[in-house]
Specification:
Shape: globular
Distance between the termini: 61 Å
Number of helices: 8
CATH topology of the largest domain: Tetrahydropterin Synthase, Chain A
Strand content: 15-25%
Structural class: alpha+beta
Helix content: 40-55%
Largest sheet: 3 strands, antiparallel
Number of domains: 3
CATH superfamily of the largest domain: Elongation factor Ts, dimerisation domain
Number of strands: 5
CATH architecture of the largest domain: 2-Layer Sandwich
């Protein structure tokens, strides 16, 4: 089947992948847009896995203000080279991450950043709550794990649904960008402030 320029353009806008990658994906999928999209996502994840051990010490600190200055975000996003750090695609990704943090209000980048005692407290609270609700003992472990997963999905940036496409997690968005930009990318750290909120040391 002949692949049109418009199909390639649409796929490119959706994924940020290169023209040839989009053409190849559409050909593999016989012109099916969703299948081509999935193919590129999987390719991005594979590429990301290959690049995960690479040093990523360049990058950008992105600043973002939302809601007439009611919410402010500062996020450090790293890549491997200054060339990529200055590229439009990388800057756009950093901006999208800052936007996500403003909207999603995560507390951590990933589950690995959560102190063990916080996880244990959440697990204990979920168990006690399930017992108070009178849930049978044989399903309590499953309920606890379900509530813990929900907690992680809410507080971890990488596990949140992407604010512009809730079919995609932020981690999948990261993998796509690693695949299309061609360098390892790391969201290193962030801070989020909201006007009038209490701060705790």
């Amino acid at each position: 089947m002949a692949i049109t320029t418009q199909q390639i353009k649409d796929l490119r806008e959706e994924t940020g992948a290169g023209v040839m990658d989009c053409r190849d994906a559409l050909q593999q999928a016989n012109g099916d847009f969703d299948e081509a999209l999935d193919f590129l996502r999987q390719k991005g994840i594979a590429t990301a896995a290959e690049r995960a051990d690479r040093e990523s010490s360049d990058g950008v600190v992105e600043l973002y203000s939302h809601g007439d200055g009611r919410v402010g975000v500062m996020v450090e996003v790293n890549c491997e080279t200054d060339f990529v750090a200055r590229s439009k695609a990388f800057r756009k990704f950093a901006h999208e991450i800052a936007l996500q943090i403003a909207a999603g209000a995560p507390c951590y980048v990933s589950p690995d950043d959560i102190p063990g005692e916080v996880i244990e407290d959440k697990r204990k609270d979920a168990r006690e709550f399930a017992l108070e609700e009178g849930k049978p003992e044989n399903v309590i472990d499953r309920i606890v794990e379900g509530r813990l997963k929900k907690f992680l999905d809410e507080v971890c940036l990488m596990r949140q649904p992407y604010v512009r496409d809730d079919e995609l997690t932020v981690e999948e968005l990261l993998m796509q960008n690693i695949g299309s930009i061609g360098e390892n990318i790391i969201v290193r750290r962030f801070e989020r402030w909201e006007l009038g909120e209490d701060t705790m040391d």
